[in-house]
């Protein structure tokens, strides 16, 4: 079960990175509309989305899958789900023995 969720998690991660890198930002549309020239510049600023809706929906779905698999992997990583341990509780405690100051040392002022 852990291996399947981890595989889905890695695939979703790589696809999400790819989809985010393929998308162009909203600033690119504004820059093309005001300074890019061309006859349809106003259409690119006020509505012509093109493939942005598909890429944004796919990114949202992949992000949801990524978050769900992240939470699932975190849930399965705990040995007993009800009793999460702190790092400080599981650390070994050691006490150091402090020797008294020898009598032949001078006193501090």
UniProtKB/TrEMBL annotation:
For the keyword Zinc, the answer is no
Q: Which UniProt keywords apply?
A: Cell membrane, Membrane, Protein transport, Translocation, Transmembrane, Transmembrane helix, Transport
Q: Where are the transmembrane segments?
A: 54-76
Tell me which InterPro entries the record gives.
Answer: SecG (IPR004692)
Q: Which GO terms describe its cellular component?
A: plasma membrane
Chain spans, region Disordered: 84-109
Q: Name one Pfam family in it.
A: SecG
Its main localization is membrane
Where found in the cell? Cell membrane
Q: Which family does it belong to?
A: Belongs to the SecG family.
Q: Which PANTHER family match?
A: PROTEIN-EXPORT MEMBRANE PROTEIN SECG
List the protein's name. Answer: Protein-export membrane protein SecG
Q: What are the top taxonomic ranks of the organism?
A: Bacteria, Pseudomonadati, Pseudomonadota, Gammaproteobacteria, Thiotrichales
């Amino acid at each position: 079960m852990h291996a399947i969720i981890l595989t889905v998690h890695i695939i979703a991660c790589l696809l999400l990175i790819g989809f985010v890198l393929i998308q162009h930002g909203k600033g690119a549309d504004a820059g093309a509309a005001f300074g890019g020239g061309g006859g349809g510049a106003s259409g690119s600023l006020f509505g012509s989305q093109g493939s942005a809706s598909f890429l944004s929906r796919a990114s949202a779905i992949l992000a949801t899958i990524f978050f769900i698999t992240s939470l699932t992997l975190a849930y399965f990583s705990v040995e007993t789900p009800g009793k999460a341990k702190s790092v400080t509780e599981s650390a070994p405690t050691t006490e150091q023995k402090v020797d008294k100051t020898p009598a032949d040392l001078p006193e501090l002022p």
